[in-house]
Amino acid sequence: MDPRRNPFAPGAGTPPPELAGREPLLERTLVALDRIRAGRPARSTIFYGLRGVGKTVLLGAVREAVEAERMLAVTIEAPENRSLPALIAPSLRAGLLRLDRTARAGAGVKHALRALAGFAKLKLKYDDFEIALDLEPEPGLADSGDLDLDLADLIVAVGEAARERETAVVLMIDELQYVAEEQLAALISALHRANQLRLPVTLVGAGLPQLLGQMGRAKSYAERLFEFVSLGPLDEIAAAAAIRVPVEREDEAITTEAVTAIVQDTQGYPYFLQEWGKHSWEVANASPITAADVDMARAAALAELDASFFRVRFDRLTPAEKRYLRAMAALGPGPHRSGDIADQLKVKVSSVAPTRNSLIAKGMLFSPAHGDTAFTVPLFDQFMQRVMPDTQET
User: Fold this and answer.
1) Separation of alpha carbons 51 and 324, rounded Å
2) Residue in 278, 244, 243, 235 with CA at minimum distance from that of residue 10
3) What is the pLDDT of residue 13?
4) Pairing relationship of beta strands 372-375 and 365-366 according to DSSP bridges
5) What torsion, rounded to 10 degrees, do the Cα atoms 234, 239, 242, 247 define?
6) What's the rounded Cα separation, in Å, for the pair 261 and 11?
7) Which residues contact 114 (CB under 8 A, 6 or more apart)?
8) pLDDT tens, 189-202?
9) How far apart are CA 77 and CA 132, in angstroms?
10) pLDDT of residue 394
């Protein structure tokens, strides 16, 4: 079949041709944002789940809808080893300047920009950011050098500017689990203050499953301030639609048996569905795509995942971390008790606790319950067995 018309789009955050199964979540989030813009109470939203379940894609869909409704989306990706001030200050500056270009006159944006100028004093403490501002700071506004106080002042000023413009500011932060807990606490506290004042500023964030515990430890009231939305694999109906609908939009066909085979192979994970769909289309000589085509495509899809989706994470690991994950893989998909993993390695639990902790910090593992350990990457156990057939290999 013509590769130029292949509708499938595997990629980091690349929008799929059919956002199957996520429409109710998107609508629920947009209802909350409309309420916040109108000054009505609504919680901020946090999407959480494993790699490849479509968190970034859903954030992108929310951003498009926010911008279509003339709200201001401030988009941030939180990498490892960057401070929250370094991430948020430049993005908020750009957002406020966009807000300032709107036709409605007012002093709110200038006030917020002065708050941001004061907030920039934090660079004395967090030396990984610089920000250029034309306005002088307002004495006493977001300039104490204390992140908790200054970020609250800044978020309130941004909310007041948005209310003046009769809009809402939506902070959209991906990979939120990489924000240090004390900085996460400051962000939660700032959003709480804005929420109490009914200001139209909110957060739509995304992260790995450990984010729930991090936010709960950062602030005990986080569970009341945020709606935590779990994203997992698609159910069979939605997963089948994610494959069938894009094919049919191209005036082609795929057999029921082929769709079933893809859903079973991928276990309904959105990223894997795109990879299988892409390769099944490419190997098919003509419509309809058949189960035999899927059988032929399977090896190519796995090879592509091994070379990119899995490998990019594997290559960041130390030899000790690789051995730990290989021991987990020998036990199956998981989750597994920490003691069972240590037994597999023939060592004491305490001796591998630092390795486990470093893998959690790198976003490779999470603890779904006390003493349990699970992969954050679906099907990673199978990859580890392919890439390290020998359990002692490093």
Assistant:
1) 19
2) 278
3) 78
4) antiparallel
5) 170
6) 22
7) 135, 136, 137, 138, 141, 157
8) 999 999 999 999 99
9) 20
10) 45
In sequence order, which residues have a C-beta less than 8 Å from that of residue 97 and are 6 or more positions away? Answer: 113
Q: Are 7 and 17 in contact (CB under 8 A)?
A: yes
The answer to whether residues 162 and 168 touch, using CB atoms and an 8 Å cutoff, is yes
The pLDDT value given to residue 82: 87
pTM for the model: 0.90
pLDDT of residue 392: 54
Instruction: State the burial class of residue 88 (Cβ atoms within 10 Å of its Cβ: 0-12, 13-18, 19+).
Output: buried
Instruction: Identify the CA nearest to 330 among candidates 386, 266, 368, 394.
Output: 386
Q: Which stretches of the chain score pLDDT less than 70?
A: 102-106, 124, 129, 132-134, 391-394
Sign of CA dihedral 29, 35, 38, 41: negative
Alpha-carbon gap, residue 42 to 306, rounded angstroms: 42
Assess contact for 202 and 171: CB atoms under 8 A: yes
Average pLDDT value for the chain: 92
Nearest to 237 by CA among 209, 260, 257: 260
Nearby residues of 100 by Cβ (< 8 Å), 6 or more positions away: 109, 110, 113
The interaxial angle of helices 181-196 and 84-100, nearest 10 deg, is 30
Q: List residues bridging with 384 in a β-sheet.
A: none
The predicted pLDDT at position 106 comes to: 67
- Helical segments of the chain, H only: 23-37, 55-68, 84-100, 108-119, 147-164, 181-196, 211-218, 222-225, 236-249, 256-266, 270-283, 291-305, 311-314, 319-331, 338-345, 349-361, 380-387
